[in-house]
Protein 1
Amino acid sequence: MLLTYLLALVPAVGWGIMPLITGKIGGSTVNQTFGIGAGATIVGLIAYCAAIMSGNSGAVAVTSQGFWISVLCGALWSTGQIGQFVSFKRMGVSNTMPLSTVFQLVGNSIIGVLIFGEWHSSRALIIGFAALLVVIIGALMTSITDQSSGKKVTIQNFLFLLVTTFGYWVYSTFPKMPMLKDEKTLGIFLPEMIGILIGAIIYTLASGNAKAFKQKEHYLNIVGGISWGIAALAYIFSGRALGTNMAFIFTQLNVVIATLGGVLILKERKTNREMGFTVLGIIFVVCGSILTVFAH
């Protein structure tokens, strides 16, 4: 059981340190997005080959429809990641991560209620929306900035991150689509990762940054992608072992790691007042996230 819980911590650590790794390596948004796509695809290929070599090829079987839908959703995920990387540079990791977590949680919850019929009872709706209110309050706390501090959360930056989170919403909800209900979880993992890489390449070329393929940061950021990919793969297995709800609770620790890491490791400047609100806001975000699990 101890090993199961340790496995459940892997996604939180992997997703939490990813922005710290890419922040330390540096490079442009194009470099970082490509690194995530390439690193995640490497993890997907290793998982695929491991399943084949162990004689468990059925675990990675996927229909052609499932393959292409997975590729498309992975490519759309890149939109969310691009928005996050741009926001890291505009607002800093410590400001971006709590807001990004909130946008993903609130958006996924609303989609779940409106499209998939989740939180169908009155009790579930009350608990669910109360939890989202706690999360929103926490996010507002983390976004409080003083005039004397460094990178700030402006309305423009706030809205940009919100709009680009659309890619994350698609990625998170697509496994629930009726046409994918019979697909193997590991079967759609590699196509998803390939889609992320394709999305990154399209972004590189469409933004007129083909020269980025000659930059070392383009490939050094693969380390961050491997961290993200390992976390995504571990989440699959922890979800099976502990259930999706419990596994989700553990993943919320990533916002703690990324936010505090942004201040301590990336040296993002915050006043004592800002830091106090940030820590309190993180507590609200994590508690609210946990509370949503009981809205069933």
Protein 2
Amino acid sequence: MNKYLDISPEVKQALAEGKPVVALESTIISHGMPYPKNVETAMLVEKTIRDNGAVPATIAIIGGRLKAGLSAEEIEYLGKSGRKVAKASRRDMAAIVARGADGATTVTTTMIIAHMAGISVFATGGIGGVHRGAETTMDISADLEELGSTPVMVVCAGAKSILDLGLTLEYLETKGVPVIGYGTDELPAFYTRRSGFGVDYRVDSPEELAAMFKAQQGLGMKGGMLVTNPIPEQYAMDKEVIDAAIDQAIAESREKGIHGKETTPFLLARVVELTGGDSLESNIQLVLNNATVAAKTAAELCK
């Protein structure tokens, strides 16, 4: 085991006994939602995973230690600390560990730590991707590189609709990452169920997902698998409303000179404001939906 890694007793026992475990990120706690809604949501997501037959492993870096499985107190700490906690991508891990600091894990770092711990399935909200205007800014999320190299199944509600979805799909294809639609032939766009872009393959059950992932592992493929699970119909937002809010938020971010790792938190927070909080509720519901699919798939993988 990696000398910098701490696995909680519950997660360690589950892994040793071959029981299903689902990884969860912590950026959504510290940077994705306001306190106390962030902590309430994190605990509800963990409960949803338990209710569907798996053990949750929320991942973060605390005091320079990579943590696979947080206590309720640690989740509360991250929630209260908010953006005081660094948003930790791959490039930040060594510095945060060496300094004994705290880091909220993105999709990238959650995948890395989950793989270190032996966890194969990870539930999140939406992945990062190719930002609009990336042909000049080169702003491309490290999530896409990690999906191309780390063998973890990521269950999400598609790429965040603040991104260039077409270029994101092209990048994933180049990296050899299969994009799977769960019950859909079309890439979901986070707040909305449809984007106009197709997925590589459609599956309709956790059994199919598990079989596909086992085959990928059995073939010795080094990368991950992206499962895109549409937000439940009753929580999906009107495409015109969300697109207008995103366009305004992007324009404001450019006026303010916001770039890099600050871009996504700014855009998501601004979209929440512009939609009167509706996008926050949608965000919570899609994460719960993804946690359900991930837990059921993890259970199938363990059979």
Protein 3
Amino acid sequence: MSEGKLLSIVIPVYNEGNAIYNNIKTVIGVLCENEIEHEVILVDDGSKDNTWEQLCFLSKDFEAVRALRLSRNFGKEAALCAGIEAVKGDACLIMDSDLQHPPRYIPEFYRLWQQGADVVDGVKKSRGKESAFSKVTAKLFYKLMHGFSGFDMHGASDFKLMSRKVIEAYNSLDEKNTFFRGMSAWLGFNRVELEFEVDERRDGKTKWSPLKLAKLALNAVTSFSSLPLYFVVWLGVAFLIAALALGIQTLVMYFTHQAVSGFTTVILLLLLTGSALMISLGIIGVYISKIYDEVKGRPRYIISEKR
């Protein structure tokens, strides 16, 4: 199947020591069966179990495997950046280490790339056996991202192939707070979609708690769009209109001697305006923290070991 083009597989790994060896062996088996020239780049994102030892075994047992170890847990987005910057191939395929991104689709990704696609987006046919709450919140998140950015990422995933020129364009982006799905969509290029079924995890549990997912969503929105800042402006305009209307009503009630004594209205107004101010300051504060992270100029990640 291969025409002398090297395909790099980039896989971030975190606390997958029990399953990672067999999972990567499965991936390599698919690549070899389809005669795809390949390299596999595994990025240990500061795992606390025996993941790094297993990656070292893989690098010894399989010539095509390269392992990178980050100095601490920088997060999946940073681990993806580390892997993509280390790519030597003509294209790279991003996938998860738990095989929920099924390796059986790799030949189809490769074929679409050879036919001229610069980006092959893996799009989920369904969200598998996720809870109803997870499905609803995911749908809400992608609707918000569509509204904020203009890019429809419904069903999007990190299961994605990028050609060499897309890799170079992605690596030229300097921001420290990254959102891979959004940034890769922003790059453009010739794109095609490939639908896939999400498989169940073979071992262990997901590392994404509701709190981590909420943090990822907040980082995605604020790193990729400035639209929430305009929300503060429109919130101020809405309260100005409400204040003018209430002021007119109050004057009318006063001059017609229908004014009602008491502090209920005043207390409600104070609560509403106070809440709006706190929300607005919170949104502005998040963006200021992003600016603070960017101007410090610290690297996205630090590699402590390579194999």
